[in-house]
Design goal:
CATH class of the largest domain in chain A: Alpha Beta
Order of helices and strands of chain B: HHEHEHEHEHEHHHHHHHH
CATH topology of the largest domain in chain A: Rossmann fold
Strand content of chain A: 25-35%
Number of strands of chain B: 5
Number of domains of chain B: 2
Largest sheet of chain B: 5 strands, mixed
Strand content of chain B: 5-15%
Helix content of chain B: 55-70%
Largest interface: A-B, 33 and 28 residues
Structural class of chain A: alpha/beta
Helix content of chain A: 25-40%
Oligomer: heterodimer
Radius of gyration of chain A: 23 Å
CATH architecture of the largest domain in chain A: 3-Layer(aba) Sandwich
Number of domains of chain A: 2
Amino acid sequence: MATNDAGLAIRVRGLTKRFGALVAVNDVDLDVPRRNVYGFLGPNGSGKSTTIRMLCGLLTPSAGEIDVLGLRIPEQAEQLRTRIGYMTQKFSLFEDLTVRENLEFLAAVQDIPRARARKRIDELVEQYHFHDRQKQLAGTMSGGQKQRLALAGAVIHEPELLFLDEPTSAVDPESRRDFWEKLFELADAGTTLLVSTHYMDEAERCHRIAILDRGVLVADGTPDTLTGELAGRTLVVDAAQPRKAKAVLLGIAGVVSVAQIGNVLRVLLADNGDAAARVDAALRAAGIEAGVSASQANLEDVFVSATRAQPAREEAA
Amino acid sequence: MKLRRLMAVMVKELRQMRRDRITLAMIVGIPVMQLLLFGYAINTNLRDLSAGFADQARTSASRALVMDIVATGVVSPALEVATPQELVDAMRRGEISIGVVIPPDYERRRAEGREAVQILVDGSDNAVQSAAAQLAQMPLDGISSGPLATRAISVTGFYNPQRRSAVNIVPGLIGVILTMTMVLFTAVAIVRERERGNMELLIATPVSSAELMIGKVLPYVAIGLVQTTVVLALGMWLFDVPLGGSLLHAYLAACLLIVANLALGLLISTGAQSQFQAMQMTFFIFLPSILLSGFMFPFAGMPKVVQWIAEALPLTHFLRLIRGVMLRGAGLSELWPDVLALLGFTSVMMTAAILRFRKRLD
């Protein structure tokens, strides 16, 4: 197997990882196009990190085929090392080295010639706003600064492919926005990015996303395609007594989930048949004053519908 | 293996070490502390050892001798008995460390230049033997001034016929200190990176197992040599330890032990799950090293099986090398079997460590 179609950075078939009795990743197929920001969406423990580690060649799959940048993984993992960058979920640079020392170490380990390494580090220090912190110990920096440093370290050798495992989980919203700006700059420059996250707003920014749930790939595609598939299945119910209305709604056949968002209820339906009419009728029958209107589906709806094949269940919004 | 990557790992280790105050303190603190502890604990200038006297002569000369011996301050009289047998019994009970027997024909023996006084020594305590040896050198002025005076007192060691001296300890101490610190430093080296989460970053880079292992070990060789220097300098200055052979050979021997211990530490580090576990394993190696290598107890006196175990410990071979070089003035080429043993130990441990360390998380 080889990615002879030059458009793919990663091609995975039947990827499975078992830890004893636990199946952490179950028969996953993936196609990640080049120059894309590809999102991995899923709750904690859904197998995102395990999948990324297998793609980097850090974990040996129990079954399946992996092709990354035309290399068979894990067999050719060593050849892959200079071509990928990997930003771990937990900060993994050296806390007792300074910003510059960390970058110097990574540059040397990536075998970048001294003169070029110096230039590249100066460049990164500038781009990632570390000019006045070069001599600061990495361990004394804030969460957002650490993430920036980790990203700078991961791209020091200008990799073709960058893996980011929940890069913004310990970062404030403003830093997150800046961080994503950096990711798009990298994508524009031709880098392929695979980012795992459990934030919906981050997933929405991706060119394509894959949704993992308990090790199973439950949906993948562009955010637009995925939300488009839910056309007609999302309603907004504006009721005076939202909690009472919610109880009624959950009793209706065909209602997958009801989430309270402020004063309105967001309802996800199992199909786009006549459910809307039934919702209206059921609320009337229960004597609840409510306005029912159709709504544009968002990724949260996609996530809920993909991860809940089961009947409607209470959701803590 | 790329030199640039190897250097990167070394520089990183040195930079991290420089910021680790406790490790820095240990580098010099452990040798100084141990040298002082061991050095003064084995001080041969012992005083006030409890002594028993069996003066069978009971002449003015013999009484003068007893007073002279007591006047040295090395012994303090604890017991006066009639027969040597009573001294032996008292020694077995632990009441006295030294017994002085003055035979009935003391003055005649003195006149004839024969051995005139016997000193019984509790050899179960090394230091007491040394003290007794000093006593034997005591010139018996005022009693006689014959040319044979030095042979006037004979020393008989009990329980431990092998005499050991202070100078034996200091060269060995270099080995003990290097065994303790070198194994410990590298034993935690890999586990620490794993515990802090750095390992996942490292194995995702092109750095190879060998580059990582060797790069981590080399800075500690320099540290080991610093420690060797501290012990040698203090040993010569404070305890007058002689250097019979070449200083270069003493350092070469130290180098051999250093790399052997570092390689062993790395192997421990690849197997340990936590820094605490690594430390436990280090002590698992350290105790037999101290007890079986010949540092504390004579190697020749050990059972065969124990000797085989001791042969597998780097410290055993180092002790033979360093005692040979420092005390007997031998060269390393004369001691080649132990040189080979240390080199062999190092290559086996290092290879095992590199092979055991896999660039995978599973």
